[in-house]
Structure formats: C-alpha cells, structure tokens
Write a structure and sequence with these properties.
By secondary structure, this protein is mostly helical. The chain has one domain (5-176). It is built from five helices and no strands. It is rod-shaped. It holds the Pfam family MotA_ExbB. InterPro entries: ExbB/TolQ_transport, MotA_ExbB_proton_chnl.
Length: 177
C-alpha cells in the first residue's frame, strides 16, 4: 500500500499552512479522546473493581475515618478518569482560533495579490475569500466534534462518581447480608 501525500498537499493549497496545524491539533484531540475511551473501557473498570473489593475487605465501614478514606479513594479514582479533560478543553478552544488565524492570513494574501495585480476581478476575489474561510470551517468542525466528546465524557464522569459511591455502599450491605 503506497501512502500518497497528494490530499495533504491539496489541503495546504486549498486552505493554507494553518490547516496543517489544525489537522495536528485535531489528531492530538482525537488521540487523547481515544485514549480516554480505552482507559474507561479497560483500566478504569478494573481499578473500580479493585477499589470496591478493598473497601469490602475493610472491617470498619462506618466510622468517620473509614468514610473519609472511602471518599479519598473514590476521589482519586475519579480524578484519574478526569485527568486529561483540561487538556482536551484547551485543544478545543484552540481550534476556532487557529481557524480564524487561517482566515485572516488568507484574506491578507487575497488582498495582497489583488493589490499586486491591480485588478478588481470579482471572480478572483471570491475564490480567494472562499479559500480563506476554509480554515475557520475546519477549526469549527474539529471544535464541535471535540466539544461533543468532552461533554459526553464529563457526563460519564459525573455518573461514574455517583455510581461508585452507590456501589461501595451497596457492596458493604451485600457483604453483611
């Protein structure tokens, strides 16, 4: 299988070098998103099971120190799940700004080329404006998809926090029954 760079060259030609930066940010964003998905599916569930088993093995479940320890354990587990969320939000915030940067630099190029040719061809200007707005479109598209993922991840984290507390309380009740 031969990898051709022609689509990337076309993309750079169509929207400028800023699209490459947006593409790199998108790749980082989606790689981190996939990492969280795999962490959630495999590592976190195993860690949750180990935590609940460790809680059940404890003799004391009702004292202040036991309840504080349970809260610390659950907070640490949830914090590991929440770890990359600020980075994901940062990458999402950068995408539209990069798109705007690409549009502004593209518009500068359009006006500069129009000034150099000393012509006011509407067709050339329309093509340049269309080409200049492509980075904004790409930046916004990446940001929207990333925002959907982060919103879903935060919803999962809130639900998991509540479920973890419930499971630990229920596990003690079930072990005493």
């Amino acid at each position: 299988m031969v990898l051709t760079l022609e689509p990337i060259r076309w993309l750079i030609g169509a929207g400028g070098e800023v699209l490459v930066v947006i593409m790199l940010v998108a790749m980082a964003l989606f790689a981190m998103s996939l990492e969280r998905l795999f962490y959630w599916r495999f590592t976190h569930r195993r860690a949750r099971r180990v935590l609940i088993e460790a809680w059940i093995r404890r003799r004391d479940h009702s004292s202040w120190s036991a309840l504080t320890l349970r809260e610390v354990w659950t907070s640490e587990l949830i914090a590991r799940l929440r770890l990359p969320v600020p980075w994901l939000k940062l990458l999402i915030a950068i995408c539209p700004l990069l798109g705007l940067l690409g549009t502004v630099t593209g518009m500068i190029q359009v006006f500069d080329s129009l000034a150099l040719t000393e012509s006011s061809q509407a067709r050339a200007m329309a093509d340049g404006v269309a080409q200049a707005t492509l980075p904004t479109l790409c930046g916004m598209a990446v940001a929207v998809v990333g925002l959907l993922f982060v919103t879903r991840l935060e919803q999962i984290i809130r639900r998991e926090d509540q479920r973890l507390h419930d499971r630990m309380a229920r596990a003690v009740e079930d072990s005493h029954a």
